[in-house]
């Protein structure tokens, strides 16, 4: 069975391109153009909805009570603190209505909806793993977050002991139940395209 560590090695090229993307550097410096940040967050609000549904699928599909509870707790955080961040950030950036999905967003929605409908726990957990692990990776590579809450909160939502433990749990689960490598590869590719699309 292929491990999460091996999958990351096998897909290191798009993974490194994503975590080293210009968007991440600008996030760390607090210098993302407002139009770029607005485009990114409007697309990510669409991502968030499908992501919450995917967390729900993991809750439903888990083969053990302990992991089910861990995912359920995280679902509560995403639907709480993270959703609250989106409400405030989109308002500050003047984003009023829902966006039309750009290609990488549409790709992610398909990947997540297909995984959710499959109700296949290894596939669901593999997609969650990439989405969370890749974000932890870029966030941990940044130094002190900018003082502006718009940047600081987005960075801090994706690092720190609790988020690192969540990603550790996802890795342990994928290593326990087995990964879906095509889903892993597609998710990494989409993460890179998602950052790229923010620049229009
Ligand atoms: C596209 C994307 N990928 C991952 C994450 C982190 N959950 C996110 N907010 N957006």
UniProtKB/TrEMBL annotation:
Pathway where this protein functions: Cofactor biosynthesis; thiamine diphosphate biosynthesis
Enzyme class (EC, first level): hydrolase
Pfam families: TENA_THI-4
Thiaminase-2/PQQC domain segment(s): 10-179
Residues annotated as transmembrane: none
MF terms in GO: thiaminase activity
Highest taxon of the lineage: Bacteria
The keyword Hydrolase is assigned to this record: yes
Function, as annotated: Catalyzes an amino-pyrimidine hydrolysis reaction at the C5' of the pyrimidine moiety of thiamine compounds, a reaction that is part of a thiamine salvage pathway. Thus, catalyzes the conversion of 4-amino-5-aminomethyl-2-methylpyrimidine to 4-amino-5-hydroxymethyl-2-methylpyrimidine (HMP).
Family classification: Belongs to the TenA family.
Protein name: Aminopyrimidine aminohydrolase
Lineage, uppermost ranks: Bacteria, Bacillati, Actinomycetota, Actinomycetes, Pseudonocardiales
